[in-house]
Amino acid sequence: MKTATLLLASLSVFAQTKPPAEKSAFDKATIEAYLRNVELYLPVVTAKVDDAKPSKDLPGFFDVTVHWSANGFTKDELVYVSKDGHQIVRGDVYDINKNPFQASLDKLKTENQPSFGPATAQATLVVFEDFQCPMCKEEAAVLRQNVATAFKDKVRVYFKDYPMESMHPWAKPAALAGRCVFKQNPASFWDFFDWAYENQGAIGLDNFNSKFQSFSTEKGMDGVQLGRCIESKSTEAEVARESDEGRALGVDATPTMFLNGRKLVGMVPWDNLQALITLELEHQAKAAESADKCCEITLPKIKQ
Q1: What is the pLDDT of residues 280-297, one digit of tens each?
Q2: pTM to 2 decimals?
Q3: What is the DSSP letter of 21?
């Protein structure tokens, strides 16, 4: 009897100390809680976790996209989950036989976008900006003066709207207006671009329309047509697409630039940007030279 009691007691202790059930990253609440702990996100940050899908980039894993948001800002994070749900991989996956920035290049759309520089340029800068952003104003001066002068035959710059509405109240109205200018006359967009940043400190949500009207009159634009475009918000879908594209590329700050697909976040001082562009141009030249040599055939010659 005593032995049976001891046995039951031992089994009871064993039952109470058995290891907890293993967690799985396929459980949405589990993966959200885990990533929250990694980043120390505050409760104000909300999350939406997508269903897992077999990964095309990392065979044997599953793609899980987590959409984080707080105070009007959003951030999409892609994580890779192992088949057993035990491992999470965060970061970029590269194929050594492909351009390391191909994934970004595939998402960047430059057709019918404001741009300057030759179409044959070896380097492309795609810039996501907010007209009310102070750092964007600094970067704009670098792009319009330094880049345009030092690399006028070698770099093409494309502009993308990315208004940070929760921080900058007149950024979106400016984005809509800029697109209206571009629709009326693509070349005039850069006049608007320069005007918006040069007058950034004097513009507010309360006076943007009146100041924009003065700008359009000064530049001899069709004010009636512009007014209709702005009032109807006919360019809102375009601005939304640019913002969606930026989020798909992981843009969460302005300015953010992509140099031939390479992501550059924040204000990049001219000396640094000049060095990066120069290195990229040198890389492109070497790649072109290597491609040309790959198919050359050298026949042996008879020595004389």
Answers
A1: 999 988 887 776 555 555
A2: 0.79
A3: P
